[in-house]
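lol ok so funny story. i was supposed to be doing the assay writeup but got distracted and ended up predicting the structure for this chain instead. priorities right. anyway since i did it might as well share w the group, maybe its usefull for someone
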Amino acid sequence: MKSEKCMIKRAKIEDANVLAALAIQMWADNDLKDLGKEFRELTMNGDAACFLKYVDDKPIAFAQCGLRHDYVEGTESSPVGYLEGVFVSEGYRKQGFAAELLSECEKWAREKGCAEFASDCEIGNIDSLRFHTALGFEEVNRIICFRKVL
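and the output, tada:
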């Protein structure tokens, strides 16, 4: 059996296109070029961090987190560390990689002075709900949003 070399690193500006290539698989309604620009900006923002997971020097997963200074549902402090997104490529899932990335995000948030960490998911995303609860998140609210064309 082949031994895999695994590592997590904090993404830098030169990793923006790698982040975008992973993120477009989760946020398919976005534009790859726009995501690359967004990740370049995020990697230079002190209130945000992205982490990349590599297996045998291949980027297979990422997590994006940030600080939210406005009210975050169910929290009592500010700023709050916030998981903006986590993605693991097909074939690498259910191996604990998302949990490892979340741990890096939480560590970063603690270093930024956060006492709480939050996240969200779409109301029908059962896999995401299970991920969050398995990793110690508690559900604090459910919301259904409406719109009307005028």
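The mean pLDDT is 94. The radius of gyration is 16 Å.
back to the writeup now i swear
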